[in-house]
Amino acid sequence: QKEVEQNSGPLSVPEGAIASLNCTYSDRGSQSFFWYRQYSGKSPELIMFIYSNGDKEDGRFTAQLNKASQYVSLLIRDSQPSDSATYLCAVNIGSGGYNKLIFGAGTRLAVHP
Amino acid sequence: NAGVMQNPRHLVRRRGQEARLRCSPMKGHSHVYWYRQLPEEGLKFMVYLQKENIIDESGMPKERFSAEFPKEGPSILRIQQVVRGDSAAYFCASSPSAGGETQYFGPGTRLLVL
User: Fold this and answer.
1) 3-state secondary structure of B86
2) Most A CBs within 10 Å: which of B44, B101, B110, as the mutation test of the A interface?
3) Of A69, A109, B52, B83, which has the most beta carbons under 10 Å away?
4) Residue B84, SS3 per DSSP
5) What is the pLDDT of residues A21-62, one digit of tens each?
6) Among candidates A9, A29, A2, which has minimal Cα distance to A88?
7) Containing H/E element for B85?
8) Which residue from A46, A97, A104 is facing B102, i.e. has the nearest CB?
9) Hey, is the C-beta of A46 within 8 angstroms of any chain B C-beta?
10) Helix, strand or coil for residue A81?
11) Which of B31, B33, B101 sits opposite A49 (nearest CB)?
12) Residues B42, B110: Cα–Cα separation, whole Å
């Protein structure tokens, strides 16, 4: 059973701080990794994807990937109350030339003023 | 450019009835994925379809559930003889290519089985 693990939270951070969200996965063959944000009652929206070991930055967001440790993380700098949501880590386990995403249960982030 | 559309947004069914959920992918997208999200859980992959073909249905329950994506019209997820455990949010996502890095999600259909 291929799995993606996340702490359910809630992760509470003050406004302006760095929020650090973590995710581990079991499938060593996975090649691509995604972070989605989901507001309560809404659909997931893609924040970032990452393929290569190391860091990938996009605005206030940085994704970090360590394939040897089977670990991917998302850093949110200068956290805002509007960042309060559930963050879903997804791992592509597809081997047939298409994306087959396995999602973690998500980490709830609460940014308080 | 309209996004992924799903209807109905909310669906109430009594046990034993049928539920039909529709998904219209983004314009130009011919790849559709269906996911189910139970309360307080992550999304679970159900099925991946291309036009007129089911490519991967490994996440679909063996009974009562079926999916199609006809040449014309939306993709349909059909649940026969619904039970209370089918109550969930059902999301579809579309992408322009099989290996494309981005799946665009629709707003979801919230199914409630009484």
Assistant:
1) helix
2) B101
3) A109
4) helix
5) 999 999 888 889 999 999 998 999 999 999 999 999 999 999
6) A9
7) none
8) A46
9) yes
10) helix
11) B101
12) 15
